[in-house]
Each structure stands twice: as structure tokens, then as C-alpha cells.
Write a structure and sequence with these properties.
Strand order of the largest sheet: 1-3-8-9-10
Protein name: Probable chemoreceptor glutamine deamidase CheD
GO molecular function: protein-glutamine glutaminase activity
Organism: Maridesulfovibrio ferrireducens
Largest sheet: 5 strands, mixed
Distance between the termini: 16 Å
CATH topology: 60s Ribosomal Protein L30, Chain: A
Catalytic activity: L-glutaminyl-[protein] + H2O = L-glutamyl-[protein] + NH4(+)
CATH class: Alpha Beta
InterPro entries: CheD-like_sf (IPR038592), Chemorcpt_Glu_NH3ase_CheD (IPR005659), Cytotoxic_necrot_fac-like_cat (IPR011324)
Low-confidence stretches: none
Length: 181
């Protein structure tokens, strides 16, 4: 499928946002330590994706019940995506989940940040823990490391196109993750 000549609308997903694709859409985003989580229903041919940049709302403000930007946090973003997918008629047991991002070393420095600042790894772990808590497990992942990623998500097929970016944001590797068997 050529994305450049496609009549399918394209949307850029900003940090802290989510997109629920009830109509076919190509959603793109760029990730560093942030994570993108996608959920796709093969039966309904509809998908959703979020771009979260902090592990948990409770770490930042444990007393606050409602966040203005719910998808800025991995834990609440996953809950939000699942609720939206269920609302449009999907079943939890049919969802295909994929996780991307969570890079840890995007600086040129060889100095490592203390563990409490390793946001990329904490984002990945929170995604895995939050998904497991609701009985979901990722079908595919491309996480960690020290390179950024650009992804394109087709909401109507669940396909993901991934570009790994080096420190100069040059293309290192491209792969296409498809749901076709």
C-alpha cells in the first residue's frame, strides 16, 4: 500500500493525545521516551492509538482524580483507549495491542540519568503492567533502546509502519508490521 497516493486522511498525533479511528485514517507520530499504544479490532476494522509521555498520573498528582489531558499518562491512556474501543462495539478479547517507543538515551552524553528519571523504561513497564492488569497483552512491540521512532498507524487495518531514527534523525531501519497472516 502506498501511503503517498492514498485517499485516506492523514492525522498527526501530538504528545498527550489519542485518536479513535471509526473511519479509515493514517495516524503518524514521533516518539522518543514517550510510548504509543495502539488497539485494533479486526472484526470491526477500527483502531485507536495514543501518545503518552509520563508513566502514571498518580506519580505526578496522586490527589487529582481527573486529568485535563488523560492521554498524557500511560496508565490512564490505556484505560481511555479501552473504554473508547468498547464503546464503539469491540470486544476486549478481540483487541490486538501494539506498543512502540520508550527510548532511554536520546542525548549525545554518555552520562546515565538516575533510575527515577529513566522515563522511557518506566513508560514501557507501565504499559505492560496496565495492559496485563486488564487482561491484554501486546501482539507486537518495538520499545527501548536509544533511538527515536516515527510510526504510521492505519486505523482500518491495524498495520504499523515504523522508522527508527538515529541521533541525527536519519532513517536507520524501516519495517512494516502487518496483521495479515
Amino acid at each position: 500500500m502506498s501511503l503517498k497516493n492514498s485517499d485516506i486522511p492523514h492525522v498527526f498525533l501530538h504528545t498527550g493525545d489519542a485518536f479513535i479511528g471509526v473511519n479509515p485514517t493514517i495516524v503518524s507520530t514521533v516518539l522518543g521516551s514517550c510510548v504509543a499504544i495502539s488497539m485494533f479490532s479486526p472484526r470491526m476494522k477500527q483502531g485507536a492509538i495514543c501518545h503518552a509521555f509520563l508513566p502514571s498520573r498518580k506519580e505526578i498528582n496522586p490527589d487529582k482524580q481527573i486529568s485535563i489531558q488523560i492521554c498524557r499518562y500511560v496508565d490512564t491512556a490505556i484505560d481511555h483507549l479501552l473504554a473508547c474501543m468498547l464503546r464503539i462495539g469491540t470486544r476486549k478479547n478481540e483487541l490486538e495491542v501494539k506498543i512502540f517507543g520508550g527510548a532511554s538515551g536520546l542525548t549525545l552524553s554518555k552520562v546515565r540519568a538516575p533510575n527515577s528519571f529513566a522515563v522511557g523504561g518506566r513508560n514501557i513497564q507501565m504499559a505492560l503492567d496496565s495492559l496485563s492488569a486488564i487482561g491484554l497483552h501486546p501482539k507486537a512491540m518495538d520499545t527501548g533502546g536509544n533511538v527515536g521512532r516515527k510510526i504510521l498507524f492505519a486505523t482500518h487495518s491495524g498495520d504499523i509502519w515504523l522508522k527508527r531514527l538515529d541521533k541525527q534523525t536519519l532513517l536507520k531501519t524501516t519495517c512494516h508490521l502487518t496483521n495479515k497472516k
